[in-house]
Amino acid sequence: MNKLTPNFSFTEMCLDRASSKRKSDEWLLEQLANEECQIIPTWRGQFLFNKTTLFVFNSGYKSNVLSEILGRHDKERSCIFLGMDNTSPIFVIDISYMEEDNLSRICNKTIELIDLRASLAFVTSKQASILGYAHWLTHWHRSHHFCGFCGSSTKPKNAGHSLICINNECGKEVFPRTDPVVIMLVEYKPKNGPAQCLLAEHHRIPDKVVSTLAGFVDPAETIEQAVIREVKEEAGVNVSTVKYITSQPWPFPSSLMLGFYATTDESLINIDDEEIRDAKWFTADEIRTFDEWGDEGNNYKLPRKESISRFLINAWVENN
Ligand SMILES: [Zn+2]
């Protein structure tokens, strides 16, 4: 199989996470004071743009507006260290508590709010990885204000990379979650004729868009077992081989997509219509005639270009 170098979104992280150094509060304060420090604001799951440029607080904002934001808010909770971009410390600050009407005044620019998915059109692939990381961590903070063991409040630790219960008798520490998802292209080779791959129409995507099967890994399951189980559950097909290909962090909000090629000796499909709308076998030549996500008309359409599903399909088509 050729061309398996990942070229899809969220796979080009360039930051040094400085995992040991970030444990020191003193070191973090030095980074916040660094002239090259950049703090990415996020507001209720969206990023701030001026026209098509991502808005970032840099050293020019430190003496006035930013210090006001950092000073009046719970700095530790809202400001998370992401990593070093060469010599520039990069943070994300969640300013969701602000009124939307105030954002342009605070940033001294006309601000548009753009969600992570839509912002991919305006940022480089490296920026996309940083925004995905920022979105992942701030979403986790917003959903973990309280300890799951005793119900007390939590507070950030380790530059925002863990949360600890403030109840001294409990003191449980929790870490950002990552939910593994298997995503697989299943191939069937008939005795005569070209190879075919199994693509499905899923309930939560537009009509006629076909993509690979996928599903969350269950507790106490290997990822290979998850591939076999999901293909059987969704399409009624028994898989005979499973091969891991590549992965993609998927920050909507916290999945890690694990991509596989699988093969089967069975062509009979028996779908679970609660899981998917339809599933069919397609040859590479048929897939080459498909339209793009978002195109009008009744032709079949491919999944979004930034997805690992599209990557698995493209690589398979090129080799068949
Ligand atoms: Zn607790």
Summarize this structure briefly.
By secondary structure, this protein is α+β, with helices and mostly antiparallel strands. The protein is 26% helix and 29% strand.
Task: Describe the protein's architecture and organization.
It is a single chain. The protein has 320 residues and is an alpha+beta fold. The protein contains 9 helices and 15 strands. The protein folds into 2 domains: 21-143; 179-318, Nucleoside Triphosphate Pyrophosphohydrolase (Alpha-Beta Complex). It is 26% helix and 29% strand. Strands 1, 2, 3, 4, 5 and 6 form a 6-stranded mixed beta sheet that branches. Strands 10, 11, 12, 13, 14 and 15 form a 6-stranded mixed beta sheet that branches. Bound molecules: zinc ion. Residues 147, 149-150, 152, 165, 167, 170, 172 line the site of zinc ion.
Are any ligands bound, and if so which?
Answer: zinc ion
Gyration radius, in Å:
23 Å
Structural shape: elongated
Oligomer: single chain
Number of domains: 2
Rounded average pLDDT: 91
CATH architecture descriptor name of the largest domain: Alpha-Beta Complex
CATH-assigned homologous superfamily of the largest domain: Nucleoside Triphosphate Pyrophosphohydrolase
End-to-end gap: 10 Å
Instruction: Name the poorly predicted regions.
Output: none
Question: What is the chain-wise order of helices and strands?
Answer: HEEEHHEEHEHHEEEEEEHEEEHH
Structural class: alpha+beta
Which topology of the largest domain does CATH recognise? Nucleoside Triphosphate Pyrophosphohydrolase
